[in-house]
Amino acid sequence: MKLPDLTELAVRNLRESLLRNSLTTVGISVGVASLVAMLSLGIGLQQLASRRLMKSGLFDTVVVTSRRDLRNFNREEERNGPAPGESRVLDEPTRVEIEHLPNVLEAYPDIRFITELRYEDKPHLTTIAALPASAKTNDAFETVQGHFFSSDTAPEAILQKTFAEELLGRAPKPGLDETNIKELAAPLLGKEIVMRYAQREAAQSPPSTETNDKNAASGDRSLAGAAYSVISREQKLKIVGVADLDPESMRGPTRARVFLPLGLAESLHVMQPTDLREVSRAATDQPVYSSVSVRVRNPSQVQKVEDAIKKMGFNTFSILDASRSIQQFFKVLDVFLGIFGSLALAVAFIGIINTLVMAILERRREIGIMKAIGASDSDIKKLFFAEAGAMGILGGIVGVALGWAIGQVINLGTNVYLKSQSFPPEHFWSVPLWLVAFAVLFSFLVSLAAGLYPAGRAARLDPVQALRYE
Amino acid sequence: MGETLIRAVDGVSLEVRAGEFVALLGSSGSGKSSVLNLIAGLDRPTSGSVMVQERDLAQLSREELARYRLHTVGMVFQSFNLIASMTLAENVELPMRFAEVERGKRDSLVREALSRVGLQARMNHRPSELSGGEQQRAALARALINRPQLLLADEPTGNLDSHTGTEIMNMVRGFNQQLGMTVVMVTHERALAERYAQRLIFLADGKLVGDESHSAMTAGAGTDQARAEGRP
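^ Those are the sequences you sent over. The predicted structure of the assembly is below.
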């Protein structure tokens, strides 16, 4: 029998016992809906998490720290690598060395310090970080209001939106959207802020040559021969932009609330926490960095670059490390949600078998007649498959719509709740097109599988007995 | 019934020529319907053979038997066996669906078949809306739609009054004489058999007990067409 005939007969048969077949189809729909609802929740949550990570703009970045930095110490590397004291220092030659590794676009020092800023004679204390010129093309800076730094050494600053709010004396509200940034930026752009900072300056000459000589002669080595002074300075900065960065996002320069051009920040020789530890080097013009950010050509090469840098004897960290475990978590979550969602479909599966077995009993004579007038076993088998498949497709389509609707309702409900708790609205429900196709196909296949036994049973029916049966 | 073997037909050997009108007579349980089912390819003999047009039905696969029933045999039953949920037109069209006849051709063939049995006005009615005679006429139209060479009728007038029965039998005779179809009819009414069949075969307890030719009827010449020897 050809497909159009098969479909026509199947639909006709389904219409004959409309109530029973509709109920079975509703059963399939509920199964598919629960599957779709569960999976779209998993996908939506995953997308929400990835969006947050993406916003940090660090997917192609590896952060390098020295093993000498005990605060960053990683217990695993403590056992495997060299002892902290024997580890390499993260200084300018090292930075250049890292920059020359294959697939590395650039390596720039993370200059970050806490200091005081004055705006309209009011002091504000915050973290300041330096940004390389390449950050201009970073996803995270796409939404900057105003413009990016005019040059790498320009005395300019970009503010993070919560800091802009602080400057304007507004209470930070959670969940501001972009229109508010425009509004925030308008009164601030072009204004001047004054940054106070501690400059590290190498001493021109050793503190006392006399004493030094004396000590050297007597074998006293308490003085290593290096010294630097710390000078308080002020720098005027022009506000050129306000950025929609998330201060709570992962580590990296975005955690600061005010950004300076990297060239300017380097030239200021701001006192860094590492300067105290690496005191012998801090006195020279060759600075030591607390961490270096490495931008990799492509996120897929992050692991390779990380390995190469680890081999050099440094600690590394990338968002990919974090996102990998997050992805793993979501995969497990998806599997669990999928299993729970499938339970209802399993019940529907049994429903289909039941409906079709009932149909065989009811249509025993009809099957006998069909066989007597020339229907083959495979014709009968196909007919039952077609009926199961039709219920599956119909149930799948209705189920997807139902699942989508459930998702929308829950999304809406959760957002109403979030709003009442003054959290920003989130979209954690996603029904991508592939899920729609997958759900309908899955429903179809499950229904065909359910039709396997009834179809086989109907095909094997003996026409002589079926016709004798009244 | 389990595994108990019941010999419905035992040691029956008969030959039917092409174009012959044969009646199988016998009381209830004599095995006449079993012989008909063997010729129809609905049942297989446990031993022996059923030769139709040089093919042994006992050796055919289930699929081949289905094709044989579809193209070579047309069947009518005592209880008409139309599908209740389908209209007459759909019932008559059904064998063409299995035979994968082109959709465009089916409509005119259905009309032609139904008008031959005088039911063109009733084609969109369901069997339950028709009288017994009309249902049997529709069953005849369905049996003939794939142009079989062999018409098998199992008590075709058993559920009809004598007037309608005669009407149906006249139609069957018409097909036998005009279309040259071979007819094998099962009945327990001797008078009916004598009136229409050229040959009467008597069965009792699964055995062939008599074979009478009726000279009154002129048979169309033909070669050996159906021969059954079996013990189902």
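The first strand of chain A starts at residue 61 and ends at 66. Chain A has two domains: 3-54+326-468, 111-288.

Shout if you want it in another format.
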